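Example complex used in Figure S2.
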Amino acid sequence: MPELRRDPIVGRWVIISTERGVRPRDFIITPPPQTSPVSLCPFCPGQELLTPKEILAYRPQGSEPNSPGWSVRVVPNKFPALHVEGELGREGLGMYDRMNGVGAHEVIIETPRHQETLAEMPVKQIEDLLWTYRDRLLDLKKDPRFRYILIFKNRGAAAGATLEHTHSQLIALPVVPTAAEQEMEGCRQHYEDKERCLYCDIVRQELADGARIVAENPEFVTLTPYAPRFPFEMWILPKRHAAYYEESQKAQFEFMAPILSETLRRMDRVLARPAYNMMLHTSPLHESSGPFYHWHVEIIPKLTQVAGFEWGTGFYINPVSPEESAKFLREAEL
Amino acid sequence: MPELRRDPIVGRWVIISTERGVRPRDFIITPPPQTSPVSLCPFCPGQELLTPKEILAYRPQGSEPNSPGWSVRVVPNKFPALHVEGELGREGLGMYDRMNGVGAHEVIIETPRHQETLAEMPVKQIEDLLWTYRDRLLDLKKDPRFRYILIFKNRGAAAGATLEHTHSQLIALPVVPTAAEQEMEGCRQHYEDKERCLYCDIVRQELADGARIVAENPEFVTLTPYAPRFPFEMWILPKRHAAYYEESQKAQFEFMAPILSETLRRMDRVLARPAYNMMLHTSPLHESSGPFYHWHVEIIPKLTQVAGFEWGTGFYINPVSPEESAKFLREAEL
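Predicted assembly (668 residues):
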C-alpha cells in the first residue's frame, strides 16, 4: 500500500509509492528511447486485455466492454500511485503524520488512433473527452474518502509521459493539496474584500487590455497569465463564472473543445510540438466554493529546467514575457 | 531592466528577465551538448577577463585582482536575472503588482581546477567556499533593498547548469519568496505552540530513530527527510540551533566541510554522479527569526521528471522511501 506523508514544516504531502521496486541502478542506467510500436501499445484497439478492466468507455456502436469499438476509454493505471481499496488509516508517528495511500489513479485513453495527438483530433472527439472528464468527476465525487481530483496530461518524455499513445490521467486524493489550497485561499480573500471572483476580474482586465490574449470565443478565453512561471504558459478560462468543471452544460463543452484544439495547435506551431503538461484546476470536492472559485485549464510547455533557484525559493525566472509569448501564439498561422 | 511580477492568486513572484532575447526558435533548436573545453572556460585561471570584474577572491599568495592565483573567486553573473543598480520602483497595474528587477546575481567559482567536483575537492577548499558564502551574505545584508538571499548550486545540464567548471550561485531578492515564507510560518507556529524549534525537534527525533540518518559528526547531521519530494533528497542540518548561516563560527565550518564532502561522495557513489541541485536555506534578512528558524542545506538529485500531477497539486510522487534511500547512502563504500 502506498503511503501519504506530510512534511511537518510546510505541510506539503507526498506519496511514497515504492511498489515498482525502483533501485538506485534504475536511475543510473539510461532508459531506452520512448517508442511504443503500435503492435505493443496497450492503449490501441485490439489490445484491451493489456490494461486493467475498463471503468468507462464511449462505444458508439454498442460493442462489448474491453473489446474494440470505443472512441474514449478509461482504465485504472496499471502502476497506480494510490490504491482505490482500503481505509484511510490516519496516524501520527512522533511528530510526523501519515495516511494510507488511498485514492484513485485512472488513465483516459483519448482516441483509438495511435498516431493522433490531442491538438490534431476532430473537435467532436475532444468534446467527447471533455464529457468523459465530467463523467469520471461525477462518479468519483460520490466516494466520501476523496477530497480533491486532478485531471492532467503529460505529453512527451521530457514532460513525464511514459507512453506515446495520447492519454490523460486522473488522480483522486484524500486531502486537498497545497497548490489547490493556495488558489482557494487567494480567491477566498479577494471575495471577502470585494465580493467578486478573482478569476472573473482577471478575465475582464485581460479582455480589456488584450496584450496577453491568445484565443477567444463566446464562452472561453486563452491567455498568458500576467506572472507566468514558464515561457508560453497558458490558461484557458470560461468567461462566465463557474467553480465546478463537472457542472458545465452542453454549450460549455461545445465551446471548450474548439478553443482547446486551437490553443494546442498554436503552441505546436510556434514551438514545434513541444513536450507539455496540462492540468484541469477545479473546485475541491464537498467544499462550497461556488461564489469565489473559477475552474480553468493550465498548459505549460516543457522548455526550461527547474533548477536550484526555483527549488530554493518558489520563485521562477522566465526568459520570455507573457506579452511576447501571446503575440507569437496569436500570430501563428494555423 | 528585468521585472518582478506577483501572481494575484497565490502570491508567487516571478522574474521576467528577457535580456538574453530568447525567441521561440531557441527552444526548438536542440542546444549542442554542454562541453566547455578548458581553453574557453571563463572560470579557469588565466581567463579572468572573460567574466565581469571580481567582487571577492581568496588569494593566498596575494596576487592582483582579476589575475590568476585565487582559490575561490566571486564575480557578477554575466547574464544576471536581476540588476544590482536601480530603485525598487514598486507599482500597481490594475489588479497586478510589479517591481523593478533589482537584486544581485553572483557566481562563486569554487576552485581554479576545471576538472575538480565539489565532492572531490580537498576539505580545506570546501571550508574556504563555506567562508566565501558567509562573506557574501554579510556584505549583501548591508544593502537595505534586499530581504532574502539564496545561495545554490546546479550540477549537470539536467539540473540547469550551463557551465561545467564547478560553481555556486547567489541571488539576493527584494522580497521574501513564498518557499521561505512557508518554512518560516511552519517554524513560527511550532514555536508558538511549544516554544521549541521545529528543526531541532526533527533532528532529535531522527537521531533517536536512526532509519533516515546518512552521515553524522559532532556538529552536523545529514538525513533523508520524512516526507521527501524526490528519491535520495537529503538535508544537512547543524545539530545546534542556529537561524543565520552567516553567524556560524570557525568550528561550524570545520565540521560542515567534511560532512558536505561525505554526503556528496555518498550520493555520487550510489547514483553514479547524478545531476543535482543544492540550496542553502537561511533566515530572511532583517527578520528576528532567531528562536524559531534553523538554517540547513537541501540536496536534490535530478532523477525524476516533475510532471502534470506535481504542477497541478504541489504533491509529489516519490518511488523510493527515505528509509531505503538512507540505507543505500549510509552503506555506500567510500
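The first helix of chain B runs from residue 24 to 28. The radius of gyration of chain B is 20 Å.
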